[in-house]
Amino acid sequence: MDWGMENRLAQIINPKTGHTVMLAVDHGYFQGPTSGLEEPGKTIAPLLPYADALMPTRGVLRECVDPHTQTTMVLRVSGGNSMARVDELSDEVITTTIEDAICLNAAAVAVSVYVGSPHQKQTLQNLSDVVNQAIKYGMPVLAVTAVGKDLVRDDRYLSLSCRIAAELGANMVKTYYCEGFENVVRGCPVPIVMAGGKKIPEKDALTLTLNAIQGGAKGVDMGRNIFRSEAPVAMIKAVRTIVHDKASVDEAFDVFNSEKVK
Length: 262
Ligand code: 5RP
Known about the structure:
The protein has 12 helices and 10 strands. By secondary structure, it is α/β, with parallel strands linked by helices.
């Protein structure tokens, strides 16, 4: 592997543990000021020291994130859709150039793909175009397997999406947890990180995290289950104990409960 590519991946996936806790805060790119991210800077600042990598858009990165941070950035570079057109969610384009990602010192760029959706081909073309550019600079590409309306998030569908993303050159894939998650991991030759999905009770989100790690995920790229938690910092610390320290769900939940009263 090219040195730059390997070095950037090592900034995201901790070489000592082989795992990563990424904090996803990119939701506003199509959801606007969604709950928990109304004022992104206030949400992000206390969580930033506990994330191995932050996943924002360039607008939030420039305006709301301390440039002196030591936390690695994985920059979302696809968009163009919105909640005002839920029938057209898969209609994404590339919004941010590789040059701007380099300017922002991103360690990787993230692109959504919508396999099985009306704009499947366009989003797979987006991924391919970004890989073609990024590879010249040793910049890893994270493919995000977005799931269109009416598509079932089962292992068959997610295996299809993750494998296609890897075949087109993604260096990492972000996908959802499902029954048979190990089949998704087995069929995907690049590291997988789990998206947290909609907010669920903290202990359930920790269980989901453990299941994903035991199923072969290299970590999480979690958003709502951290920043919408009643105690976001306690939650990210608890997630870290599972991802990096092999904690059980009960041990991690104890961390959450003891940290939330601090
Ligand atoms: C949608 C996205 C997100 O906006 C986000 O990263 C999802 O994170 P979470 O499900 O944990 O809130 O990638 O496709």
